[in-house]
Amino acid sequence: MDVVGGWISEIRYFYVHQSMEPLSAHAQALWHYLMYRANNTFWSFPLVIRVTELSGALNMSVSAVKKARAELVKGGYLLHERQQGNQAARYFILSNIRPGKVVEPLKVLPGGKEKKRIHPPVLPGRRLIRITSFLMNQN
Fold this sequence. Notes:
Layout: H1 7-20, H2 25-40, E1 47-49, H3 51-58, H4 62-75, E2 78-81, E3 89-93, E4 107-108, E5 114-115, H5 126-136
Helix pairs in contact: 2-4, 3-4
């Protein structure tokens, strides 16, 4: 994670978003579990996880996990890529600080230069406008 972001800051902004557009308890639990898994893998994306694994870890039914996942995708918190057959899905957690960008650390090259990984852009839509106006009205 870089100095501007950081996983604690991502969690803080997650709750700023919750005050404007709350997610279901299942979607919140799934987001936190995916953040936990991303932290354990040193923010190396994609996270490759089977739905049955998520179901067991979160003590939710498979259908509840799929519904929570769809809610996170619709809300702009997550990118989800299905794989063919019985392969595990791939997940990219999207930043709450920088909507539309994947949460990830910066790579530092020799000489102190930063190298950013490029992921496909995701349009933040109305969420960015609502967050910006909410934050501007906090003063």
